[in-house]
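Late entry, written up from scratch paper. The run itself happened at the end of the previous shift, but nothing got recorded in the book at the time, so transcribing now.
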Amino acid sequence: MQTDQQLKELVRQKYSEIASQDKDVNQASCCGAGGCSTEVYNIMSDDYAGLDGYAADADLGLGCGLPTQYAKIAPGDTVIDLGSGAGNDVFIARAEVGESGYVIGVDFTPAMIEKAKLNAAKLGFSNVEFRQGDIEEMPVDSNTADVIVSNCVLNLVPDKKAVMKDIYRVLKPGGHFSISDIVLKGDLPQALKQAAEMYAGCVSGAIQKDAYLECITITGFENLTIQKEKMIIIPDDILKQYLSEAELTSFRNSDVGIYSVTVYAEKPTVPKNCCGPDCCK
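Output as recorded:
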């Protein structure tokens, strides 16, 4: 079993490669990894093209939802995008905050940060910024953000509780998040759990839906809402790279479900008796 640091390095290396891949390749695979399917073109990502602020050069096809569409972003807000990639959600959030707002993208892959900065320069934006860093310990001051968004990223982080605690720290009191992510119902086959490619592909790093939601509530967030949920079907031609025919048949006949969920929650205006960093030492 790999350590947390080894898993992080795996993701960093894989997403450095993904930064240079075509969108078509990423959409036909699991978050750009896990091989490509000839059966299904668009496995996880939703279509951003109709949203204000959309920049085709920044869309790598790596998401599993449209969190910015649900994030209740207002003009003048400060927004942070976790795992900002080439900048797609940052630029869409900028269209919502306007000239008076500010958007920060955080990503720990240098190749993604470089690509995002080039895209921002081409667009001439002065109120967006990209910072390299770990979303478990964001390079952002406490009580900075009105809104945090993230698209198919937390499943790549080994310590999800640490991410939730840092989201709590960085949000202003009364601030909120809208996060799209991959969760599970039932246990994945062992071969998928152990496959490095499927970890980088947003699948084997996912946790149970109930555990995911509990992680949010025990951190101290309130008004938890599932804004959208859809089932993800991994095509057979990808699964056959990891499962035998018998294992594949068993998996298809099981009650295991892989889902994309978009989840909303708020940081209390006044800290309550909770496990958030502002109220438990």
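The longest strand covers residues 171-185.
(Scratch paper discarded after transcription.)
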